[in-house]
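User: Predict the full complex structure for these chains.
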Amino acid sequence: MAATLPSTSVLDLALAAKAAARKLATVPSATKDAALHAIADALEARIPEILEANARDLEAGRENGLSDALMDRLALTDARVRSIAAGARAIAALPDPVGEVVDGGRLANGLEVRKVRVPLGVVAVVYEARPNVTIDAAALALKSGNAVLLRGSSSAAHSNAVLARIAAEAASELPAGSIGLVGGDREALTELAQLEGIVDLIIPRGGEGLKKAISAVAKVPVIYAAAGNCHVYVDASADLAAAERIIVNAKVQRPGTCNSAETLLVHSDVADRFLPGAIAALRAEGVELRGDERVRTVDPSVNAAVESDWGEEFLALILAVKVVDSVEEAIDHVNEYGSGHSEAIVTNDRSAARAFQLGIDSACIYVNASTRFTDGGEFGMGAEIGNSTQKLHARGPIGLRELCSTRYLVEGDGQVRA
Amino acid sequence: MAATLPSTSVLDLALAAKAAARKLATVPSATKDAALHAIADALEARIPEILEANARDLEAGRENGLSDALMDRLALTDARVRSIAAGARAIAALPDPVGEVVDGGRLANGLEVRKVRVPLGVVAVVYEARPNVTIDAAALALKSGNAVLLRGSSSAAHSNAVLARIAAEAASELPAGSIGLVGGDREALTELAQLEGIVDLIIPRGGEGLKKAISAVAKVPVIYAAAGNCHVYVDASADLAAAERIIVNAKVQRPGTCNSAETLLVHSDVADRFLPGAIAALRAEGVELRGDERVRTVDPSVNAAVESDWGEEFLALILAVKVVDSVEEAIDHVNEYGSGHSEAIVTNDRSAARAFQLGIDSACIYVNASTRFTDGGEFGMGAEIGNSTQKLHARGPIGLRELCSTRYLVEGDGQVRA
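Assistant: Here is the predicted structure of the two-chain assembly.
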């Protein structure tokens, strides 16, 4: 069985993962893919067991007065388990990032250099209510040749434990220790985040509270599956019908996600023509608007925005709206208030599009498309573990390649340095 | 003039650098290259001024009893300044990493996605005695579109100040604030390492003391220009003459560098035939040997190694030597004691070579070549700012590309997510 389960100490789990990682790095793709299929099959075969454990979490959630939204995120159903299994099979179908030659050539002295992708080693994923992350994260980590340490929230403890146990038992062809479920209290999380030299990366996937808790104590490298304060800017030359479709999609299609728009910027030349229809369309979808003075001149019924609205990730049907006089003003606003995630310009002006793409320091910059496309699946990378807004190592969707490092392999016939 | 000089506070310097970085990100290659040539020309034109400042540092160094080695690293000469200028011109001649498309394609919905290289923003480099790093680091940062904050050691304060001033004056076509020289005490360094959201990366280039000082306080991302405990393993099937050339080169060609060998591992099948000649050749170059019992059985005049010798980066003419019974034992030794920098196997056995390259978790793994080749220049990347042994973002030589991030640019014609 490939897992060590929560009764074990954090250090022991991590050491077992480290030992497993050494072996996993050289496990052939076919073996890893077979393990992911075995996990998917086992999940489907053991649905009653999973739903029983989930029912215990749901009951505790009701007793603890969890919100409807959190209860929904926590709940598993037959269909949701099948969807989790399908996700694992989809990850098995992706190309193996390990061994990919990303650069290389022959040097003047005859040395052959290849820069190849290798696993990071031990990847820890810390996540909140949704139990599906247990399998998603494990599948992504294993496919990329990493051992994984999973740390879910206590509210999903029974669900996570049964999912991890099923995965570990099904992945029996992988080295023991490949999947570890970290239990315990906040101190266990601190210990996990400080295992320098054992844990190679920790990915917190959750809200700002989790991010702050980890960043205060972490000694191992961290990539945050980040929040997003995303912007849509409607330029003077925009196709206004397309602009309306884009802002409505970016705001309402799934408002709780990090790639949803939180602020609409509109060029003053088109504010009078664009805003009334856009406001009506957004309100028809239940969006509350918070505008600056110039927006409220166009439509006085819009609530007044306060300074904090520009920096806020609402994650809800609320949109801040501001009129600007130029693409430069839009760029400056985004660079000042944005979180570096995803921004869109709607324009038919080539130089405005170019200025926006060059001038904004964000992970993903769209011309005439919704910010909602920032997603590993949409980008053709397959599943992802979140989106990164940091600049080092991984920026944008964190997929299989981002869970890897590289190594230089150099072959010679006796070369020494002169 | 492109610099703000040390009288300014760390925060003000960093904010000026941040503002400069926004502009530098879109400065054309030709402008950056012209600035590097102007810096090189100005350095050569102002050699007397540079040597005068350097003489003051040397005088203070003599008064403070600096070692001969440190005095040599501190000293500038006409030839050394010309070599620094030549280095800046060589960096100008490298391809611009900014704007390079590293991945891309058209999605099923018609969106065109490009993943392009962009500057990190503000890069801080913290370095010890050698004043040439002032120009090397500035040139690498500017070429890759980054503003640079330079923090040298107090022992080279006059030299660094005049070099930074000359560079900043010569680079007058670049945005003000592009080159900042950070002065002050240890607290100023702490402040620099904590400017989250302003400084995008800090690179300490120096010994273990500097590394510990930075890692204890840093809140901004750090890449260490790392130490190296490198190994050469002579396999049973090795060409023993090549093996002797390689270990002598890896140990003695420049023993103070991070890619020099510190431990020699020898397969027991060839220990009797290989060691006597290798020991003689190494001793002829002044190398002190510290062997395990089996080495001392072959040559009792070799000093006995102690446990700490296996983990030590000697950076001197000292070599630990051990006899092993298999490539697996060599791999385990390297993974246990190594620092993940550079390792070499000398062998004619394909499966031993493959096992060594797959099984060792280091940045660079050589077959039949010296570890001394781990170097940006040798790898055809041009100049480097050091070598990284960490797994995230940059592993191996830190050159122009490693001073960059990426950004996704996505172009559509009104796409929204279904």
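The mean pLDDT of chain B is 95.
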